[in-house]
Specification:
The structure is a single chain. The chain is mainly α and about 140 residues long. The protein is built from 5 helices and no strands. α1 runs antiparallel to α2, α1 packs antiparallel against α4 and α3 packs across α4.
Amino acid sequence: MSSTLRQLARFIGSNSIAAVMNIVAKTISASTLGDPASIFVGFCTGLVTSYALCRKYVFKPRGSANFSEVIRFTMINCASLALTFATYHLALALIHVSIGAEVGNASSKVMAYTLGVIAPIAFSFAAQRAFTFRQP
């Protein structure tokens, strides 16, 4: 397996952990904060987890973390957040149309949000690799 494929596998593994943290934080906070705020809480939880795991286990940059690296990482994840929101709302609508589940149904929201979290994987890997951690 090439080094890029191994790195992609570690990226998917690390971000799967971050995604679980994201979904759990969103689900727990949804009962008190509502959807937009709980999605933000989930996103921030996943972002911190993802950065720590990607820096340590996936991209392994030399030197210590710096402010510009964190900003680049955050910018890419904000673009990913937009993709997550778009996918979430599209998936909710598709779930409603395809199985007739109520759009506000808690299980429909969890399924749709899970799809939203999965959607930006390829974009995020390529952008983090080239832009944030600047690897060939």
